[in-house]
Amino acid sequence: MRAGSRGFIVSALAVPVILYCVLVVSPYAQSFYISMTDWNGLSPERNFVGLANYTRLVKDGVFWTSLWHNVIAVVVIPVGTLTLGLFFATMIRVGRYRARGGTLNVRGGAFYRVAYFFPHVLSIAVIGVLFANVYDPTPSGLLNGLLGVAGIDPVNWLGDKSTAYAAILAVIVWMSVGFYVVLFTSSMSAIPVELFEAARLDGATRWQTFWRLTLPLIWDTVQVAGVYLGIHALDMFAIVNVMSAAGGSGGPDNATQVLGNYLYLTAFSDSEFGYATAVGVALLLLTLLFAWVSLRLTRRERIEY
């Protein structure tokens, strides 16, 4: 077995590595080349223009607006989703104390996990239709109807520049938090109950138990979840395209425009695939930078139990 281990490993990994290179590495390499052409996506001709598309990016106001919106999302979505996910997971997993120490799952915990997770299984199209009714600008809309009860005038949530992007970010947090409730609940379930009993006997409050015991023991899960949410926040194409005003154009007046949607519009509406690919390359580099920085900043010593 030792003599043939190298050959076995090579033969086992050869096909996956080849497929990865063909289906992932090769398209990335082609993208770098296409981003230096003026290809329109339809013609077989691709004229090499060097760094002209990247020079245009630097001067493109819509690109910088889209980038700024993505930066806001990278902060708001992970912080909001992780905060709510950890809160709900803690309430479900350690929602009540035993009489003699330790903790018990809250009654109906399984139901709460299903209820929180349900929005995550809905398609983007369904969520878009659902919140089109929630954000309906007329007094008959669900949210405006509730505001009307309090005597507040109707708000055009998706048609007003001051509220459109915040409304979409709220939807993303709503649809994402359920998955992380289930994820964090599972991570907390792996913590030995004896540790909670010891913390209770030492007089630790619920906040101290969470901050000094639960969170450090599930930190690896939280770290990976934060990186994944940040990468998701750098995309946001589908939900913005479905919910933004003026038929997915990132409106009103680019108030909800993000890089993923701007890339799509540039490629398929303006037929500028070369420039759109340059936007995609910039998004790729931004994603890699975010992943590296976030992993560096959130790195901490692993705690064993």
The CATH superfamily label reads MetI-like
Tell me the name of the CATH class: Mainly Alpha
Strand content: under 5%
Q: How would you classify the quaternary structure?
A: single chain
Q: Kindly report the spatial arrangement of strands forming the biggest sheet.
A: 1-2
CATH arch. level architecture: Orthogonal Bundle
**Structural Rg:** 24 Å
Residues in helix, %: 55-70%
The largest sheet, given as strand count, sense and whether it forms a barrel, is:
2 strands, antiparallel
CA-based shape: globular
What series of H and E elements makes up the topology? Answer: HHHEEHHHHHHHHHHH
By DSSP (H or I, 4+ residues per run), the number of helices equals 14
Mean pLDDT: 86
What structural class results from the helix and strand content? mainly alpha
Predict the CATH topology: MetI-like fold
First-last Cα distance: 35 Å
Overall tally of domains: 1
Which spans of ≥5 residues are poorly predicted at pLDDT below 50?
A: none
Layout of SSEs?
Blueprint: H1 5-34, H2 52-59, H3 61-93, E1 96-97, E2 103-104, H4 109-121, H5 124-134, H6 142-149, H7 164-189, H8 193-201, H9 206-217, H10 219-233, H11 237-243, H12 245-248, H13 259-269, H14 273-297
Antiparallel strand pairs: 1-2
Helix pairs in contact: 2-14, 3-7, 3-10, 4-7, 5-11, 10-14, 11-13, 13-14
Which descriptors would you attach to this protein?
two-stranded antiparallel sheet, MetI-like fold, 305 residues
Structure description:
- The protein is mainly alpha-helical.
- It has a single domain, classed as MetI-like fold (Orthogonal Bundle), CATH 1.10.3720.
- Helices cover 70% and strands 1% of the residues.
- It has 14 helices and two strands.
- It has helices at residues 5-34, 52-59, 61-93, 109-121, 124-134, 142-149, 164-189, 193-201, 206-217, 219-233, 237-243, 245-248, 259-269, 273-297, and strands at 96-97, 103-104.
- It has a two-stranded antiparallel sheet.
- Strand 1 (96-97) and strand 2 (103-104) form a beta hairpin.
- Helix 3 packs parallel to helix 7 (164-189), helix 11 (237-243) packs across helix 13 (259-269) and helix 13 runs antiparallel to helix 14.
- The longest helix is centred in the first third of the chain and has 33 residues, at 61-93.
- The chain is globular and about 75 Å long.
- The two termini are 35 Å apart.
- 30% of the residues are buried.
